[in-house]
């Protein structure tokens, strides 16, 4: 399964999620950002590649829908509600991501 994780700058949250899930069998993980200044900015190719899209905040969902409306279903985006207050691989961030994403992957 191809999982795309999205935050604003692709600096802390989505790269943490990518790091967690790229270690799991059966999951191909990528992380991207929605801002112009993102380390790796989300593209149409990323959207087309993804089978599941996980965004950290509802604003990320809105940006994806605005930019890729024809290529994406609003029901195909999962909002994790994880605020931008953690550093890369912060143990609390890892726990929040896993508790939000794992049940969605089980379905």
From TrEMBL:
Gene3D superfamilies: 3.40.50.2300. This is Protein-tyrosine-phosphatase. It comes from Stieleria marina.
């Amino acid at each position: 399964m191809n999982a795309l994780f999205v935050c604003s700058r692709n600096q802390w949250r989505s790269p943490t999620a990518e790091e967690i899930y790229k270690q799991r069998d059966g999951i191909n993980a990528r992380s991207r950002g929605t801002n112009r200044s993102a380390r790796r900015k989300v593209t149409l190719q990323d959207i087309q590649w993804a089978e599941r899209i996980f965004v950290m905040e509802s604003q990320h969902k809105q940006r994806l829908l605005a930019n890729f409306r024809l290529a994406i279903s609003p029901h195909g985006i999962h909002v994790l509600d994880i605020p931008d207050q953690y550093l890369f691989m912060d143990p609390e961030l890892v726990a929040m991501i896993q508790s939000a994403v794992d049940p969605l992957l089980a379905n």
